[in-house]
Each structure stands twice: as structure tokens, then as C-alpha cells.
């Protein structure tokens, strides 16, 4: 049995859940998400908790049980609290600017500025504190979407392994490589 799949999902009072097989709809203050469950899966709802019930004990159903329970949990958390990823710009001359509500204009040391169009459902914020690196805060009710967008933005200028310059996650630790060794081997 899946340990994760058996756990009930707690529903906060601000979230409404409706189940019309095979679609589960989760509505909350941060947005609405729909999740289509595989054939045979059902949901039982009692005392403010959801329990995902799998159709059988075959290998595929067991594999999907915990996965879909986690997806339901992410939808509930996302619609009630939301998810956020923070990227840091490290490097002299690297800048970020928000044009309108959905275009991120980045100066990353290339010969041109990079314009990144944010997909619908993502909110971005530029935070600059004195003595700190410039931060780009991405927020969404969809965990997968906010992670994917953060990875796409980071891929525009990944951290350099020698100086550490570039775009990185705020909690990412960059292990720097040693540069050239001067004077070794000379006689």
C-alpha cells in the first residue's frame, strides 16, 4: 500500500472542493485548479478531509495512488496559500525590470536585453534591498507552473562555476571551482 496515498488531505475552510468524476475542482482565494484523475480512482470526502481511493492493487494503480494524492494536496495548498520561487541576480550590471504585468526584461551581460513573457497565472515582483542581490519573486497557485517558469528564467543565465555570477535560486548553494594555479611547474 502507498503510504502517501493513504494519507487524507486536509481541506481548509477557505477552499471548496467539488468532485464530478473524473474531474476534481479546487477553488480557493488564490485561484481555481482542475485535476483529471485516472479511470477508476474515486474520492471520499468527510469531516473536512479528502481520501483518494484506488480501484485495485495492480502495479499501475499503486504507482499512481501516491502521485495523485500529492497533486491533490498541491492543488489545495496552492489555492489557499499559493507557491513562490525566488531567483537572485548575481553580477555587476545584471538587472531585471517588469514591463506591464507579464513581461520581464532582463539585462544579463549579453549584447541585448532578454524579454521573458510570463505565462498566465504567474505574478512576478522585483525586490531590491540595500546590500542584497536583486531578487525576482514568482508567485502562483500552481506548483508545477511556478517551478517550470523559474527553471526557464534561470536557464537564461545559469550560475558561472568560477565566479558564481548569473541567475540562481535564493536557497541554491553554488560550489565554486578553483581557477588557474599560477606558477605551478615553473623552474
Considering the chains and any ligands shown, give keywords for the structure:
187 residues, 36% strand, three-stranded antiparallel beta sheet, alpha+beta, 20% helix, 3 helices, Outer Surface Protein A, domain 3, four-stranded antiparallel beta sheet, 2 domains
Write up this protein.
By secondary structure, the protein is α+β, with helices and mostly antiparallel strands. It folds into 2 domains: 3-80, Outer Surface Protein A, domain 3 (Alpha-Beta Complex), CATH 3.90.930.12; 83-169, Ribosomal protein L6 (Outer Surface Protein A, domain 3). It has helices spanning 3-6, 59-80, 143-154, and strands spanning 9-10, 16-20, 23-28, 31-36, 42-46, 49-53, 83-90, 95-99, 103-107, 114-117, 123-127, 134-140, 166-169. The strands form 4 sheets. Strands 11-12-7-13 form a 4-stranded antiparallel beta sheet, covered by helices on one side. Strands 1-6-5 form a 3-stranded antiparallel beta sheet.
Amino acid at each position: 500500500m502507498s503510504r502517501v496515498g493513504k494519507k487524507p488531505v486536509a481541506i481548509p475552510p477557505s477552499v471548496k472542493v467539488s468532485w464530478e468524476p473524473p474531474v476534481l475542482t479546487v477553488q480557493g482565494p488564490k485561484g481555481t485548479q482542475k485535476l483529471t484523475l485516472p479511470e477508476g480512482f474515486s474520492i471520499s470526502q468527510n469531516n473536512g478531509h479528502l481520501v483518494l481511493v484506488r480501484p485495485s492493487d495492480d502495479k499501475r494503480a499503486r504507482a499512481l495512488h501516491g502521485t495523485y494524492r500529492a497533486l491533490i494536496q498541491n492543488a489545495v495548498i496552492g489555492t489557499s496559500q499559493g507557491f513562490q520561487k525566488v531567483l537572485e541576480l548575481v553580477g555587476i550590471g545584471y538587472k531585471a525590470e517588469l514591463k506591464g504585468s507579464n513581461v520581464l526584461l532582463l539585462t544579463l551581460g549579453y549584447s541585448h536585453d532578454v524579454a521573458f513573457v510570463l505565462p498566465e497565472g504567474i505574478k512576478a515582483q522585483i525586490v531590491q534591498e540595500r546590500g542584497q542581490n536583486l531578487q525576482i519573486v514568482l508567485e502562483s497557485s500552481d506548483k508545477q507552473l511556478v517551478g517550470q517558469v523559474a527553471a526557464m528564467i534561470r536557464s537564461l543565465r545559469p550560475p558561472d562555476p568560477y565566479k558564481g555570477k548569473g541567475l540562481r535560486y535564493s536557497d541554491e548553494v553554488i560550489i565554486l571551482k578553483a581557477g588557474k594555479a599560477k606558477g605551478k611547474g615553473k623552474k
